[in-house]
Design goal:
mainly alpha; 2 domains; 3 helices; rod-shaped
Length: about 120
């Protein structure tokens, strides 16, 4: 208990000025004051930690929003790439069809020319 009073004398000069032999009632008042002081210090620490948590949450929310914007732009780019790929595929199919027609035409022409030479 003497260590508690000594701690009180170092921590709070106003409380240290109280007489040490004031009895059980005075000791209880000192203990209550110490408890109140510790509660104020703890509350101050909790408030600082809560403010830091709020700042961290706000920063995280801003980061998530930036990530969402980036994901949206990537999705838009992917859609454009998909559309361009589909157009390219359609153009390739048209070229394949035209090549087949050209091959058929050249085959028919060769048969005509061959028929003219033999006939």
């Amino acid at each position: 208990m003497r260590g508690l009073l000594l701690l009180l004398a170092v921590a709070s000069p106003a409380l240290a000025q109280q007489p040490r032999s004031a009895g059980a009632g005075a000791l209880r008042a000192v203990q209550i004051q110490i408890t109140d002081e510790w509660a104020r210090v703890a509350a101050s620490g909790v408030a600082v930690a809560a403010e830091a948590n709020v700042a961290a949450a706000q920063s995280a929310a801003a980061d998530v929003q930036a990530i969402a914007r980036t994901a949206e732009s990537h999705a838009a780019a992917a859609q454009q790439l998909n559309a361009a790929t589909e157009e390219q595929s359609a153009a390739c199919q048209q070229m394949t069809s035209a090549s087949h027609l050209l091959l058929e035409g050249s085959t028919q022409l060769r048969q005509l020319v061959t028929g003219l030479r033999t006939g």
